[in-house]
Design brief:
CATH class of the largest domain in chain A: Alpha Beta
CATH superfamily of the largest domain in chain A: MoaB/Mog-like domain
Largest interface: A-B, 71 and 71 residues
CATH architecture of the largest domain in chain A: 3-Layer(aba) Sandwich
Distance between the termini of chain A: 34 Å
Oligomer: homodimer
Number of domains of chain A: 2
Helix content of chain A: 25-40%
């Protein structure tokens, strides 16, 4: 297995997520979409709207991972400090991006492009824009960092706009098996399958619903043949333990 | 404002969250509950089931924050490596905790406490247990690190079991105002309120639903009087802009 693994980190910026008032909806979307592009989401961080924390974190993760995606903090209000922080992290000035300004000018009726809205045209010098088909104010890319809105519908549209810029490796293929069994029944057999298929990542995710313990077994690998073989063994294991292997993605 | 700010970090362990298959449900719960105890959740990290990453991350965050809460990776299967990683991070051996073993022995019918289940009695040496009223297998605390299950119902029950061990500062009080206005209309007025109330943290969180832009303004402070005054000014600002200030928590 000599393929290059392409990695990513998501940086979620916002007090609102940390206070528990808003439940993040972007991480799961990005994890899934990146995986489909052959990019492995290796880490995510949630940080508050504090400039020093954002700058230090961004500088750490942009060096460790191939791609960094940020969400949040690019609106028109005083607490939207992401663009400024990204500029400081890269050591470049924050400028009014002429193309971004033109987009906002074309979008707002005459006289409506106030000072606050104009802040949304500010980017680090050297950034390229990320189109926002929903509400126009663009995101931007600088180096390997992609800066997107926090509102899920806008973030998702921005991701669609930028994804042609990403170069992934081989995507990880996935097979999942669910069983109404406590995970501890499966553990010895699963360990044995894992040992026979070291190139297949086997995750065991218990759940507990209405008094019943069950488990979802998720297998991931680049090689489709080995993945299918390992999943077959897992299904066989579930059957041997007296349960029915089910497809958790069938709804 | 000389009160000590008590800080926390949440460490979410699991490939499943990063792949997007499972949407985390623990962060919002912990952020809210910690805040009510006067503990500020300052950061959250999601890391994969990889020992080196877990160990390095844990050693970083347990030094930076007053409390660290981990979720995930304490079950009976091969991919449950949290206890071992925590032991290695603290530089202590992983032992079978006698009290944890006794709990499992009392819980499972004779002959059912297999090798896999016994793994759930392993803790770093010196750890104290966290009771699990749902499925018995305990979490544990070592130093300022609290290790909990990933299944939300179990994690929540464990948090209830451990919270008397936490010492918070003054809780941040919150007031929220919603308005059907684009955030850019509010921006200049909000900046002015923020300048008059530097001790009140004012967050502006836009939303976009069914073609309508709106915003939730969240004010947080320790001083109830200042918080009420600032929230009054924000409501007045919304009214001046021709909208009706609403209570977003009224449902």
């Amino acid at each position: 297995m000599s393929e290059k693994i392409v990695t990513a980190c998501v940086l979620i910026i916002g007090n609102e997520i940390l206070s528990g008032r808003t439940r993040d909806a972007n991480l799961a979307f990005l994890g899934e979409r990146l995986n489909a592009l052959g990019i492995r989401l290796m880490e995510a961080r949630v940080v508050p709207d504090q400039d020093e924390v954002i700058i230090v974190t961004l500088n750490e993760v942009r060096r460790r991972f191939d791609y960094v995606f940020t969400t949040g903090g690019i609106g028109p209000t005083h607490d939207d400090i992401t663009a400024e922080c990204v500029a400081r992290a890269f050591g470049v000035p924050l400028i009014q991006h002429p193309e971004a300004r033109a987009i906002l000018e074309a979008h707002y009726p005459p006289g409506e492009l106030n000072q606050a809205r104009l802040r949304m045209a500010d980017t680090p010098e050297g950034a390229t824009l990320i189109e926002n088909p929903v509400s126009k104010a663009p995101g931007f890319q600088i180096g390997n960092v992609f800066v997107m809105a926090g509102i899920p519908s806008i973030m998702q549209a921005m991701f669609e706009s930028l994804k042609h810029r990403l170069t992934g490796g081989e995507p990880l293929l996935t097979k999942a098996v669910a069983a109404a069994l406590p995970e501890s029944y499966l553990a010895p057999g699963l360990t044995a399958v894992q040992e026979r298929y070291p190139e297949v990542e086997i995750g065991s995710y218990p759940f507990y619903r209405m008094g019943v313990f069950g488990v979802r077994l998720v297998l991931r690998a680049i090689d489709a043949g080995r993945l299918t073989a390992a999943a077959g063994e897992v299904r066989e294991l579930v059957r041997k333990l007296g349960a029915k292997p089910e497809d958790p993605d069938e709804k």
